[in-house]
Amino acid sequence: MIVDVQREFIKFINQNLLNNIKNYIEENKWANIVVLVDENKETCTIPEWMSNSSTKIVHKKYTTTKDESIYNDIELGEAEKVDDGFIYDDGKVVVDTDNAHDNFVIPKELQEISKLLTDVVLIGGAAGECLEDVEEALKYLKVKVEINKTFTYSAKDKYEDTSWSVIEKWVSV
Predict the structure, then answer these.
(1) What are the phi and psi torsion angles at 169 (to 5°)?
(2) What is the DSSP letter of 91?
(3) Are the CB atoms for 86 and 103 separated by under 8 Å?
(4) SS3 98
(5) Residue 47: which of 173, 172, 169 has the closest Cα?
(6) Of residues 84, 13, 70, the one with CA closest to residue 46
(7) pLDDT tens-digit profile of 70-80?
(8) Which residues are 23's β-sheet partners?
(9) What is the reported pTM?
(10) What is the C-alpha R_g of the chain?
């Protein structure tokens, strides 16, 4: 499962990482490659080869403030707290995270896909943010998760030279 390897985060990704991810995907020949993209940005643009390699592209969201409406719904009995850190709300599962994102909404598509999965390797990023959100969500959905840190990036790393990205073919998803 590839998380947030998209043009919108190019300042955190260098060309070597992108090439290494591409080679990793080609070498392993997985039957299913799910790409999760952050739709908090106005656009979602990924490398064309990644789009062609994926079996499914799933859009996801997070919030940076606690969604008080969820807690109000719990008090009113319209939502049920399922587990510490997880809230079920009218078919929507929200992970209450302790990172830069306060809440992560588990996309319904990811909930459906997780029923078909037993284990997942996560790559991409950002470590400690979206990658952690997806890891916690998958664990909640009873999927065994491994993060391959060789193929992750951090939002703390910033690259000044992103000129290489004009060579890459990008597609909107």
Answers:
(1) -90, 125
(2) T
(3) no
(4) coil
(5) 169
(6) 13
(7) 667 777 877 66
(8) none
(9) 0.84
(10) 16
